[in-house]
Amino acid sequence: MSTAARPRTGVTDAVKPAGCCLLVEDQPRTREWLCRALQTAFPTMAIISVGTLREAHAWLDALPEAQSADLTIAVVDIGLPDGSGIDIVRRLSRERPDVLPIIATIYSDDAHLFEAIAAGARGYLLKDEDEATLVAYLRRIERGEPPLAPAVAHRMLAFFRGPSIDRSDEARLTGRETETLSLLARGLTVPEAAARLGLSPQTVASYVKVIYQKLNITSRAEAAREAIRRGLA
Q1: Distance in angstroms between the alpha carbons of the first and the last residue of the chain
Q2: What burial class does residue 97 get, using C-beta atoms within 10 Å of its C-beta: 0-12 exposed, 13-18 middle, 19+ buried?
């Protein structure tokens, strides 16, 4: 874990990037490159860098309440040695909705993209960009714009420009099934969804099975995509 301390000044833009950024990236060279881009984009920001999911959770656990308001941005890799960085995005969306979670990854496919968005990611950048381009995307945050790589933005537009949605298909889900789909898309496990709904895990597991059958899907990523399509996530 390392810290690049920077002086802090007030910023009055839509998002205030002058506080602190949590950077979660396991590759040392990539971590240094992302740190440089962040410091170029936001010279007054403090960068806290960690290399694993465990370290990221530990840092958030240890963050003093008095300093928690300083955390304004989190830049998170998906493929970490001990799990998916999307877990951090879910935690921040649940516990710190004021923080801007941004994915920085090599993955541009629908499965990773829509799972991240459903979890609460508010930006999605690709690591194959050059540093100057990445800095330009990051600076959009100060204007209240989501930092999105063009390839990602085009993929999202193509998804929503796809074949028209059969609204009768949406009616195939019952109210409970719709609630279950929404909770799954937000990253809750079956036991967590059961607790939220006041049902047994076995009952919710049966809902999940029916949902997958009705929607002809086989994975949580596909469930997240369908939830987004239906406006549930």
Answers
A1: 33
A2: exposed
Length of the chain: 233
* Binned average pLDDT, 10 residues per bin, the chain of 233 residues: 39 54 94 94 93 95 76 94 93 92 89 86 90 92 87 76 50 80 84 87 87 83 80 73
**CB < 8 Å & 24+ apart, contacts of 60-64:** 60/22, 60/88, 60/91, 60/95
Quote the domain boundaries for residue 133. Answer: 2-159
Number of domains in the chain: 2
Tokens of 211: 């949902």
CATH code (residue 23) = 3.40.50.2300
Residue 44: how many CB atoms within 10 A of its CB?
14
Q: Give me the CATH number covering residue 215.
A: 1.10.10.10
| Helix/strand number for the chain, H first, E second | 11, 8
CB 101 within 8 A of CB 146: no
Q: Residue 169: its pLDDT value, please?
A: 46
Q: 130-136: long-range contacts at Cβ-Cβ below 8 A with a sequence spacing of 24 or more?
A: 131/33, 131/36, 131/37, 131/40, 134/34, 134/37, 135/37, 135/40, 135/41
Residue 159 has a pLDDT of 67
Q: How far apart are CA 3 and CA 100, in angstroms?
A: 19
* Strand pairing report for 2-4 and 20-24: unpaired
pTM above the 0.70 mark?
A: no
